[in-house]
Write a structure and sequence with these properties.
Elements: E1 15-18, E2 22-25, E3 28-31, E4 37-39, H1 53-58, H2 65-78
Antiparallel strand pairs: 1-2, 2-3, 3-4
Length: about 100
């Protein structure tokens, strides 16, 4: 894990990887400052031109592309494939309820 970044901003999140500008949290990829986020459900998304996140972010002058690339790799390894539903969807637990005992 990288040693840089402001831990105070991320203290209430589960952090899986922390870089200089980007981090991987339980929510997905986000800037250490918290002003840009990519949810887990969108880490493999393509835009209208068929470009992935690395291509799109490469065009942004403010992005530290090496740091972002590492965050993207860590996130994709952590969540290899997303189901069709939301990343934070938990299927209902089947329970047996005996209405006669209620």
């Amino acid at each position: 894990m990288a040693e840089s970044g402001d831990w105070r901003l991320a203290s209430k999140k589960m952090i899986y990887w922390l870089g200089r500008q980007w981090m991987v949290t339980g929510l997905g990829i986000e800037t250490v400052k918290g002003n840009h986020r990519i949810p887990v459900s969108e880490i493999r998304a393509l835009d209208e031109q068929g470009r992935g996140w690395l291509e799109r972010m490469h065009e942004q002058a403010w992005v530290q592309i090496e740091d972002f690339s590492e965050a993207l790799s860590v996130a994709r390894a952590r969540w290899p494939a997303m189901p069709a539903h939301d990343a934070f969807y938990f299927p209902p637990v089947e329970t047996k309820f005996d209405a006669g005992n209620a």
